[in-house]
Amino acid sequence: xxxxxxxxxxxxxxxxxxxxxxxxxxxxxxxxxxxxxxxxxxxxxxxxxxxxxxxxxxxxxxxxxxxxxxxxxxxxxxxxxxxxxxxxxxxxxxxxxxxxxxxxxxxxxxxxxxxxxxxxxxxxxxxxxxxxxxxxxxxxxxxxxxxxxxxxxxxxxxxxxxxxxxxxxxxxxxxxxxxxxxxxxxxxxxxxxxxxxxxxxxxxxxxxxxxxxxxxxxxxxxxxxxxxxxx
Length: 231
Ligand SMILES: Nc1nc2c(c(=O)[nH]1)N[C@H]1C(S)=C(S)[C@@H](COP(=O)(O)O)O[C@H]1N2
Ligand SMILES: [Mo]
Prior knowledge:
alpha+beta; five-stranded mixed β-sheet; binds molybdenum atom
């Protein structure tokens, strides 16, 4: 295995993980592989998975959560976002050229933002398979973003919508904006805003076991709920 980036520790298995308010939130339709492209575009469009098979590609990459855990060697299958942009978005939706940021939304209401340049980097995937299996609900069904050069919070699970916007959006109330670094590059330890990366390591690390347990517990509760069929 490759060596890990600064401040990261390896885990063997991928936990279901995220911001605590999303532990008990799930995609409303995990079978719906559709992506809405909206915001500052000439024509809002919906992209259907059936049109994307020609772009399918596989990639092995690592997931680095900002809270310091990493899982190496994940085998993803899906669609390169750069190709998806060129073949399905640029000509059809015609984003405003000055809209250089994107707001990414999951079916669970989770949001994250990236610069368009970061979204279109090589290695950014819209993935619907992990380690040879269809993506589970835990890890982002029906599909998710995979942005290996960025901390995990940019890799939106259950991706449903991309809005083109003119500036980096404020996703959190004042006082919580430190959570959201505009770039979040792992290589430069851009964990959050306002403090050096190494300091965030110590702030976040104590919350990992509790957060992973809460996410796991919420998934178990959903599985045993009589009304929700689960893959
Ligand atoms: N929709 C959605 N996407 C999300 C999150 C979330 O809570 N909801 N959490 C993010 C965070 S912080 C991380 S580290 C990864 C975790 O992915 P995993 O649950 O597959 O390990 O998903 C990211 N994408
Ligand atoms: Mo994370």
